């Protein structure tokens, strides 16, 4: 069902972005706590990184059909 | 135009009628004036008669002048030969038959003139036959032979005549000459006797009378002989002329006769000459004797005169004076006699002296005479010898000619034999050729006949075969009809089966519930395939059923409709996403658009889509409308126009829709086919 694909993609995207964001945030916090004397910039940096990665992944995932630079069997 | 014609006709009628009226009047005038009409008729009759008479007369005159014209007229105009014969007499060189009769008559009459006259037309007739080339060769040859025969007959007749006449004359002449000779000899003898014999005076006078009679006889005989001789000469001349004439005729059969006649002539001439010479010799002798007698008579007369001069009373014949003389007379006579004896002695001496001269002279004379006689004899002998030689030559010539002719005949016979051989050979060759030709012709005719026969038999056979073929064909046709009936029934059964299977297939399509596809169409499709072994179309169609439908089944239209409804909102949401616009921001915008844009739920699609209608929202509303109205196909077409992500989203639905559509199409085709087949197999009542 091709119509369900989009939903699946969004699901993945959201999950991935949540993970990324959380991970970024967490790592930021960790790094800020650990290495950067609780500056906020690593948190924002980390969350930004996480968001950015999530955004990029989501975008990539959503436009993956249109890229087709290598044969891929199936996207989960 | 009709009126013009009528006017013209009337005018001409009036004119003619007027003219006839005039002429009628003229005729009436003539009839009323009686004498002129009779005169006119008489004139016409007279003119006619004159013309006819003139024509006939002219024809007769010209026929008289020109025989060819006469012959032509006689050939062409009947009874003209009678008229012309009446007017002119028989035609002269027309045929040899009347001439021949005439000639035979003349021959029998023995007339030279008629023969010569007959010979003329005879010689004319051969010349006349030459210009008349119409006569056939055999006729001409026959006529010529006839004429030759006639000529020969004439010649023989004439020769015989002349021969007989001349022989007669010659014999006569010879007889006369002999008679003359005899008469002469008799006379001479008598004269000699009269001169020398001492006979008494009575007998002397009788002797003298006899002598005179003999002389008269002799003269008569000599005259007769002369006339006979002249006649004989004439006859011989005529014979010669006839011989010459017959020599002039070129008839070979006459030659021996001519030769014989010539020989006879020669013999006659020779005999005649001999007799004539005899007569001449006798005459010369007689002349001598007569001279002697004359001399004696003269001497006697002299003596008589002397005696008479001496004794005048003594009679003439002194021999009769035996008793009448006196002694004086006797003395005178003796004296005279002595004188005479003296004279005579003197004369004798003189004569003896002159004897030689006289003898010489006489010899000369005799020589001359002998010479003349010799010459004459020589000439006659020469002539005779010449004649004999010529006759001999002629005889030899005729013999040679005969020999030559015999040889020629043998040669000709040989030639004829050779010719017959050659002709036989040629005939053989010709026969061969002709046989070959005939055989060829025969064989060709036979061939023709055979070919005709074969042709006819072939035709018969062909006809028979044709009939058989037609019968067989009909039989076959009937069999085929029956078979086709059987086949048609089979077909009908099959069609029914097919129809049933297709109906089953159709039914399976209806087994789709909501969201559950139909049962797999495999079984039904197999059934359909089983029931349509022979129909390629059906087989193709049944094999054209998509695999998915066979194995999985197809979704119904209702389920597709429902699904579409859920798809629609999704498609709306991703309307802006395509290859180039597919970032998240675009996604956000697209979602915003979908939230803010409101279109009609269902919109009827136009007949033709323009570029504006390719907007996804519009398309979706068109498709909804179509779906609501059951037109899955159009909905699918419209949905097919979506591009980008929306298209990706509806891809599956489209596939399903396609599947369903395909299956339905195939099934509908199959059912249509089955229906058609079923309809086709149903037989009209």
Automatic annotation (TrEMBL), chain A:
UniProt xrefs under InterPro entries: Mic10
Quaternary assembly: Component of the mitochondrial contact site and cristae organizing system (MICOS) complex.
Protein name: MICOS complex subunit MIC10
TM regions (residue ranges): 18-36
Function of the molecule: Component of the MICOS complex, a large protein complex of the mitochondrial inner membrane that plays crucial roles in the maintenance of crista junctions, inner membrane architecture, and formation of contact sites to the outer membrane.
Any Pfam family hit: DUF543
The family this protein is said to belong to: Belongs to the MICOS complex subunit Mic10 family.
Keywords: Membrane, Mitochondrion, Mitochondrion inner membrane, Transmembrane, Transmembrane helix
Intracellular or extracellular location(s): Mitochondrion inner membrane
GO cellular component, one term: MICOS complex
Organism the protein comes from: Dicentrarchus labrax
Topology versus the membrane: Single-pass membrane protein
UniProtKB/TrEMBL annotation, chain B:
Keyword field contains DNA repair: no
Assigned GO CC terms: MICOS complex
Coiled coil segments of this chain: 327-354
Keyword Lipoprotein: no
Subcellular location: Mitochondrion inner membrane
Biological processes, Gene Ontology terms: cristae formation
Matching Pfam families: Mitofilin
Superkingdom: Eukaryota
Residue ranges, annotated region (Disordered): 106-132
Membrane topology: Single-pass membrane protein
Signal peptide: none
Keyword annotations: Coiled coil, Membrane, Mitochondrion, Mitochondrion inner membrane, Transmembrane, Transmembrane helix
Function of the molecule: Component of the MICOS complex, a large protein complex of the mitochondrial inner membrane that plays crucial roles in the maintenance of crista junctions, inner membrane architecture, and formation of contact sites to the outer membrane.
Record-stated family: Belongs to the MICOS complex subunit Mic60 family.
Subunit description: Component of the mitochondrial contact site and cristae organizing system (MICOS) complex.
This protein's name: MICOS complex subunit MIC60
Gene: immt
